[in-house]
């Protein structure tokens, strides 16, 4: 759903640099498929945050919203940091401050697409597996969609900062930045699971 809505937004010209956004979108998707393939081949080779997300999906005690948020956490807070830094790495030094602002504006524009997509995901995915969420949705009106959109937007703000940190870091510093990102993602996953 989200990928389809992103492709539509790119085709409609909603981004300042649609070619760059399209390139990032495909590179970002690759991270998901690589992690999924690693987990399917040998779960221990997948990034820990993806191991946790996939392992938890096997638990019947978790709600659909928790499973979805675990995957969104792994894909945004982990995969997107690396996909974004990969795409920015080769061009960052050559970009003017204005061009860097365009990159950031396009990154932020994705939040608008996410906000447009949240209700559909809720209706077609979450409520399908957790019918009681339909009652929650009706009681909360548009507040639940707004809350999820704000949560994801705040995650994506941190993703941008983490990606830029990686872009400007030395090779030696990147390993510790990777550990920092991984630790933060696992902490978020634990909070989704209501663990300390």
Descriptive report:
The protein has 196 residues and is mostly helical. The protein has one domain (2-192). Helix content is 82%, strand content 0%. The protein has helices at residues 2-11, 18-41, 48-57, 64-89, 97-129, 132-140, 143-168, 171-192. Helix 4 (64-89) runs antiparallel to helix 8 (171-192). The longest helix is centred in the middle third of the chain and has 33 residues, at 97-129. The mean pLDDT is 94.
Q: Uncertain spans, ≥5 residues at pLDDT below 50?
A: none
Measured by DSSP, the beta-strand proportion falls in under 5%
Report helical residue fraction: over 70%
Order of helices and strands: HHHHHHHH
Give the termini separation: 32 Å
Distinct helical segment count: 8
Counting DSSP E segments of at least 2 residues, the number of strands comes to: 0
Q: How many domains would you count in the coordinates?
A: 1
Overall body shape: globular
User: What gyration radius follows from the Cα positions, in whole Å?
Assistant: 17 Å
Class from secondary-structure proportions: mainly alpha
Mean pLDDT: 94
Largest sheet at a glance? none
